[in-house]
Amino acid sequence: MSLNLLLHGGLAASPDKPALVFNGTSTSYRALADAVDRSARGLLSLGVAHGDRVAIFMRNRAEFVELYLACFRVGAIAVPLNHRFQTDEVVFAVDHCAAKLLIVDGPLLPIVQNVQESSPSLAGVYVYGEVPAGAVNTWTDVVDAVGAGDEHDGKPTAWPSVADDDPAMILYTSGSTGKPKGVTHTHRSILATASGRVATQQLTADDISLAATAICHAGAAVGVAFPTLLVGGTVVILAESDPELFLDALQAQRPTRTILLPAQLLDAVVDPRANDVDFGCLREIQCGGDQISPDLYTEFAKVAALELNQIYGLTECEGAVMNPSFGPIERGSIGVPRDGVEVRVVTPAEHPTGEDVAAGRTGEIWIRGDSVMTGYWEDPEHTAATFVDGWLRTGDLGRRQDDGYLYFQGRIKEIIIKGGSNIAPGEVEDVLDAHPDVELSGVVGTPDARLGALVHAFVELKHGRPAPPTEHDLAAFAAERLAAYKVPDRWTFVTELPRNKVGKIDRHALHARAIELDAG
């Protein structure tokens, strides 16, 4: 079945019940369904056809969910872009997926002001919400032009037919090297994730789920919003990942569920206000995106009579492993496979033979199930390298105990995960190496107690330059081309980068050097 059925249960059972709550404003299931249909007709009026890509560049807001569902309604592919992207990153994603439309949040318009001129696939850029001076095309005008009735060009709307295996979303995520890859999910894979979460977490229409992370990512959209709407519950959306907003939402909205990043939750529970906030409304709080430190467990226990549920997932398969919602939770463990997901721990190798390791031994985590992506958009090489006989190779290391509980052990790939966001060292290096005074750069992650990791850049400058750049110069250069979270946090200038026997940058040496410097 297609994602067009997401609202059917809630709409039939309780049409006037809040489906979404944002900034204190509620949107009922009836109102959301009407808004989705109007935006869907707006897409059709602009010539968006089945399979066309629609890029959405927004901060958290209720209309983000509306646009997701509108794309699903007409068989278009929603392409949510990280709201922290800079112009070059938006241009790359838009060009890579050949997006037909770009719908942008008003305050983010300056970042994409001239994108259409450089991206030939774009038929238009439309502004949603607050409209800055000089904006020409607004989404409100598009929706107003099609009217409120179930008609298109004076005739009843003929919605395109949508199949289970049609692509529904492309989510751009950093791989271990180079540019982001477009993780492609179908109607089937997203519904499998939503249904699997419903079964594993025992979600009901009484649940109020708090989308506290960026809804352009899989966690808040596929892991929180869609499963909750599927059962007719209510989704409360935070405008941003802010501890004050989180604590306010606990007081005012009384959510029963949420997913948070470890750093985000730690900021909230150490806030002085946390001692006066009642956490008793929460039936479950899941935490993922990075390891949970002992400090977080300790601080959380001071304010809530609830055990943290550590989970594991990736954009390629959201929420694949979690501690049981209504069963024993093992501190330090990522839990057991959720409903509909199979997990193996396999001998790690560049060309694996698929041999499972013994219980208690470390191996690569492999995942299989309908929730897994179909592949990377227009990237058959990386897709083929990621799948072995239908199993997704995660690039992550783990071990399984005799009782079936899994423990995360690290990463095979060089991916840096900072505050729950993936950063490809190669992408940062490409930007730094483009600076006219940089000979070569090497980027690694260095441990951080709060964010999980920081970005440490080692830079080899070109010799003989009269005014070599400072770290502030390079940071400003990078900030113009990368999202802020990707800009290096620490800088080390070296005469020459260490290289291995084949002449490549010796990342092991850089890791060791980074740890040595940070310890000092």
Strand residue content? 25-35%
Q: How many whole angstroms does the radius of gyration measure?
A: 23 Å
What is the total tally of β strands?
28
- Which architecture of one domain per CATH? 3-Layer(aba) Sandwich
Question: What features would you describe in this structure?
Answer:
With 520 residues, the chain is α/β, with parallel strands linked by helices. Among the domains are: 3-151 and 162-240, Rossmann fold (3-Layer(aba) Sandwich), CATH 3.40.50.980; 416-519, ANL, C-terminal domain (GMP Synthetase, Chain A, domain 3, 2-Layer Sandwich). The chain is 30% helix and 27% strand. It has a 9-stranded mixed beta sheet. The longest helix is centred in the N-terminal third of the chain and has 17 residues, at 29-45. The chain starts with 7 loop residues before the first helix and ends with a helix. The mean pLDDT is 91.
Brief digest:
By secondary structure, the chain is α/β, with parallel strands linked by helices. Among the domains are: 3-151 and 162-240, Rossmann fold, CATH 3.40.50; 416-519, ANL, C-terminal domain (GMP Synthetase, Chain A, domain 3), CATH 3.30.300.30.
